[in-house]
């Protein structure tokens, strides 16, 4: 750990802290399964929440090095399993029937990660092969302990370093806690898998295994079995005669399509959750962490990406101000110049060094200078971008992420920003107003007469009542006009 920090030329204060913490870290590295490498053993000893961080790092050999990335890949799906007898007890308790009545075959664990493990089974009714996912015993308590430690650390950071408050450490932990709690209820994951399958039904070269609703519960989830090559097994992919360049591009393109088109994306796309079918399709697994972004945020995200691709830094700056990401008292021209200082060096690199992770790192420095706060709604999206880029690079190290992203982002811009999108948005506005039609006059009258006692105050910029009243009146007028025109 100390070597990694030194290699990245970390600040001296962080390096000293790492050296102080070096002894307990080394001690943790001697705990747990002796077959695991020391760093991996240390992370598993620290707890399931830390394993999540290790899984992210395992996708980035360009950051942590090939050797450490390979060691950390154990965290994706090769952790020590819990006994099959315990898994069967959970299945019987959750599904309220003996395992032998439900499955004619039930294997030893075939994969084990931080939260659950997977068994290969066969349905007793029709002989179909399925994957049965079972939560680890006591996982809820273990995660809560880690989360409590994170909250304590976040509070200490905010107290000791007031400048860090713009990063909202406690809000970030709260966001992470919400994501994790969703993973600990497999009923939610079953629903997420079904929704993701419905959204992507027409996507070529993507396979989402079907869920078995009546064999799933809070601690057990059953899906059809999907055969494929682990996406991290480069040798096996080559042996199957598959083009890794195409596969790397496909992973990135699918992620961008889901994030922009659907606003609902797989947010845990490390190698352990992706397989490659023998025809080159991507098989998506494990839907415990899913990301959702609203339509406005998608447009902002797309315009920022497109602006960087086009090197239109002024437009990128305008989008940040329009979305409220940068405080209004900052200078937009200065911000555009700062963005150019981020973008130009990256676009001057060769393809193998162009990195979304590097871009986010540089942007982090810029945000500090211009007082931008952390946007918790974008944390999952940014994290997934970094992971997906890492997976794509592990398949094809020379991938040019901007070149691959450009067609998908351009297509979204054409559909979502412009005259066609404007008319579609107006149509949605009319439909919303029509649902509240009978109430609109009453709402407008109440807002306008709310302060009728005494002299009517002059409408001031930013005045809540007047702003709402004027906005509502204009919306009603616009809705009527558009409705008559359409």
Protein topology:
Elements: H1 2-7, H2 12-20, H3 22-28, H4 38-46, H5 48-58, H6 61-64, H7 66-72, H8 74-77, H9 84-95, H10 99-102, E1 103-112, E2 116-123, E3 129-135, H11 139-160, H12 169-183, H13 186-199, E4 206-207, E5 220-224, E6 229-230, H14 234-239, H15 244-262, E7 264-266, E8 274-276, E9 282-284, E10 290-292, H16 295-310, H17 313-322, H18 332-347, H19 356-369, H20 376-395, H21 401-416, H22 419-435, H23 440-449, H24 464-485
Parallel strand pairs: 4-9
Antiparallel strand pairs: 1-2, 2-3, 3-5, 6-8, 7-10, 8-9
Helix pairs in contact: 3-4, 4-5, 5-7, 11-12, 15-20, 15-21, 16-17, 16-21, 17-18, 18-19, 22-24, 23-24
Content-based structural category:
alpha+beta
Number of strands: 10
Classify the helix fraction into a percent range.
Answer: 55-70%
Give the uncertain stretches in residue-range form: 1-31, 458-463, 479-486
Q: Tell me what portion of residues adopts beta-strand conformation.
A: 5-15%
Oligomer: single chain
Cα-to-Cα separation, first versus last residue? 63 Å
Cross-sheet strand order for the largest sheet: 1-2-3-5
Return Rg in Å. Answer: 26 Å
Described by the principal axes of the CA atoms, the overall outline is: globular
Q: For the report, how would you describe the main beta sheet?
A: 4 strands, antiparallel
User: How many separate structural domains?
Assistant: 4
Q: Could you tell me the mean pLDDT?
A: 76
Number of helices: 24
Fold and architecture overview:
- This protein has 486 residues and is an alpha+beta fold.
- It folds into 4 domains: 75 residues, no CATH class; 43 residues; 188 residues, no CATH class; 66 residues, no CATH class.
- Helix content is 60%, strand content 9%.
- The protein contains 24 helices and 10 strands.
- A 4-stranded antiparallel β-sheet has the order 1-2-3-5.
- The chain is globular, with a radius of gyration of 26 Å.
- The relative contact order is 0.08.
- The N terminus and C terminus are likely disordered.
